[in-house]
Amino acid sequence: MISGDMVLPRISTNVSVIDIEPEADPLPLYLASIAGLRALPEGTLVLPSHGRPFKGLHTRIDQLAQHHEERLADTLAACREKPCSAADLLPVLFRRKLDLHQTTFAMGEAIAHLHALASRGQLRGRLDADGIRRFALSQA
């Protein structure tokens, strides 16, 4: 299978909200797409766009899904403490120093995780007086 960036052997795919579709919710779509790859045999040879070809597709899908569930839990925990913007989440989701290029991708990913939790009904976003959109726990 030629996976392109969809399934990479060592790093996670950049699943981001971008400027041309600022209200998008790409993370659930990505997770559903990789789950659909389970129809292929576990021993399928995966040809990624980055890294070496590999086998173990189902194991890698499990790892990627777990990675995003952990990041969603981290996002929810941060927003439980105080309303958070995507920028507030960068040190929570990315525990290393980021350069400008990496920060651009990281902001898109942070927004994607916020939107996924909002679509689940766990967070709600609001535009604050300073013009920054922050997310807080939804009221039950």
List keywords for this structure.
140 residues; two-stranded antiparallel ribbon; mainly alpha; two-stranded parallel sheet; Arc Repressor Mutant, subunit A; single chain
Runs in which pLDDT lies below 50 for 5 or more consecutive residues are none
Q: Helical region count?
A: 4
Percent of residues in β-strands: 5-15%
Write the element-wise H/E pattern from the N-terminal end onward: EHEHHHEE
What does this structure look like?
The chain is mainly alpha-helical and 140 residues long. The protein has one domain: Arc Repressor Mutant, subunit A, CATH 1.10.10. Helices cover 46% and strands 11% of the residues. The chain has helices at 26-36, 57-81, 86-93, 100-119, and strands spanning 2-4, 47-48, 123-127, 133-137. It has a two-stranded parallel sheet with strand order 1-2. Strand 3 and strand 4 form a beta hairpin. Helix 2 (57-81) crosses helix 4 (100-119) and helix 3 packs across helix 4 (100-119). 24% of the residues are buried. The mean pLDDT is 96.
